[in-house]
Specification:
With 318 residues, the protein is an alpha/beta fold. It has ten helices and ten strands. The termini are far apart.
Length: 318
Amino acid sequence: MSFDPFAAPGATAAPEPGASPTPDATTAPGTPAAVSQTSTGNVGNLGNSVLYHANFPIAEREIQLPPDPNAALSLRNLWKRFGDKIAVADVNLDVPAGSFYGLVGPNGAGKTTTLSMATGLLRPDHGVATVLGHDVWANPVAAKRLLGVLPDGVRLFDRLTGQQLITYTGLLRGMDQNTVAARTNDLLQVMDLQADKDKFVVDYSAGMTKKVALACALIHAPRVLVLDEPFEAVDPVSAANIRDILHKYVADGGTVIISSHVMDLVQRTCSHVAIMANGRVIAAGPVDVVRQGQDLETRFVELVGGRRTAEGLSWLTN
């Protein structure tokens, strides 16, 4: 039985044996149901080549490679629907181990939803996410042991001090007290939070809160870091320090996955990038391959579209 993202919530599709569901594009304009019935792309190596699959027919998009056990993060056929809105539509992606991977897209593209499903924070309607071969939903303990996550919009225990929060996170991970104490001190120093370690997190600025949350993601030395907008509201000096930490982490064999709206940052920082729009990955691969000789922002706008002119605001001029 095949997954039908266009069925009513809670309904089960029942296609004929051997048949693939063929959604009625007229009932869901602008959704993946409206794809062309002629394939114009090639899935190829999802981690190292440019990927265009928005126009793949439903039947072809259901025939996918299994998750790559060697990839730091491997996503296959991820779907998520909220009511009538399809937020993530058949996302397939491999993040090579040891890469610095950027996930970019306009507001509402599905980046946070995709990362939430990939890290065990949000259950997908359909599809598989694996971390270094461990299924996030079938074997969550093994997968999450390898993950450090900086989620977007998830509240911290902000009635703890910064030092207490990092310490608490380490102890929850099962680490011994001496190791937690030493690493907490190191992280407070690196994040420039030593002077504020005894303040309650609720009294931190937005940038300080981001830094203490990143420290919590790093405390157990994970092999894969997934960071949703890690540089948002962080001052330039702290952002530079964080980039240095992350680059060293990658150089030592770790993998970093970030989402961001800042194309220049992604182009300068990341080795690979995936561009999302309308819940789909529309291009993915090494940054230089995806941008095709242009700067990443220009290429992003070319792929995503949506540029508007300022016509109609003549009343702004004197």
